[in-house]
Amino acid sequence: MATTTTMNQMRAWRGWPIFSFGFRPFFFFGALDAALMIALWVPWYLGIIAIPSMFAPVSWHVHELLFGYVPAIIAGFMLTAVPNWTGRLPVVGWPLAGLFSLWLLARLVIAFSAGVSPALVYGVGLLFPLALTALFAREVIAGRNWRNLKVIVVLSLFTAAQIFFYYENSRYGSSLYAERAGIALVIMLIQIIGGRVVPSFTGNWLRKRKSEALPLPFGRYDRLVMVLSAIALIIWIILPALPMHTPAAGAVLILTGALNLIRQWRWRPLKTFGEPLVLILHLSFLPVGLGFIFAGLVSATGLSGAESAAIHCWTVGAIGGMTLAIMTRASRGHTGRPLTAPPATVFIYAMIMLALAARLAAAFQPAWTFTMIPVAGLGWTLAFAGFCLAYGPMLFSARR
């Protein structure tokens, strides 16, 4: 029933195809924003250019990744998935265009916010996440889809983290705890949603190949890992307030990382090398566990570079990689293309993994920083610009 009504609603829209389904504008312009964000931030960070924003370079970089790019991709994914979860009609046409306009307005205002009232900038920045969370809450409650209320809780907390970001930044000139909270909530969302789609898509592909070794179904072990992950992420958020060497906190984080790697191993990652669309899901989930381990090593041993490695495992590898994995797969499936990875898609995946490798190299070899950061920025920019070039035509055209 949900599929029929969704398709009827899509066909009823006679305007631009880009507003015929939620994933279209948010995936394309979210990717464009991600490419431009790093293409501008790296030379800004290196002192080559300046951006007329009220935020310092690092704060702007963090804000636009966590509270600009990530909400766009969440919106694209959820606006596509929620109608299937609830059986309700999708948001398309002018309502979708209006929601997208709130997101775009925030990007422009924040980029050119120097000299603008902070209250106005913060207010505009919060319009989109508040509208998005309210929309999803309405749909989930109206559809009585109670099992997905936890996603709404995470989104609400994510909006609260953005509010706290503005508070910290206005009072202290930085937003250390809000940044950590934002990253932690996205990683938790990846564990919730990725914990469904990675084994599901892996299992579907392995069944087509008549494989007998399939991913293990969601069970008690997965619940245990997710609960422990939530506890470990809370510890990581408050770590700056603790003594520099806190072995107990480090042990919890390292244990959580190891259990996440075991969880992923149960999904048969080594059997996915024949299909890049599936392999990239595993390559992008791997940094979740590695990030916990690196974060734990900071507290347990004080390992130099481990803090940066943890943050960039989670942001570049898990967030960047997993969002591209979902964006490419969903864009192909929902526009009537075959679920295969042509060379352009493989290039996108290779570039985001290059960005991760370069950023980790910069973390552990400080002497390489001013070489590896541009390499990481180039890899990231090429990955997202590549998505725009390869997938833009299908996102702007009618479904086949």
From TrEMBL:
The chain crosses the membrane at residues 21-46, 66-85, 92-113, 119-137, 149-167, 182-203, 224-242, 248-265, 277-297, 309-327, 339-361, 367-391. Signal peptide: none annotated. InterPro entries: NnrS (IPR010266). It comes from Martelella endophytica. This is Short-chain dehydrogenase. The keyword Cell membrane does not apply. The lineage of its organism: Bacteria, Pseudomonadati, Pseudomonadota, Alphaproteobacteria, Hyphomicrobiales. Keywords: Membrane, Transmembrane, Transmembrane helix. The keyword Transmembrane helix applies. It comes from the Bacteria.
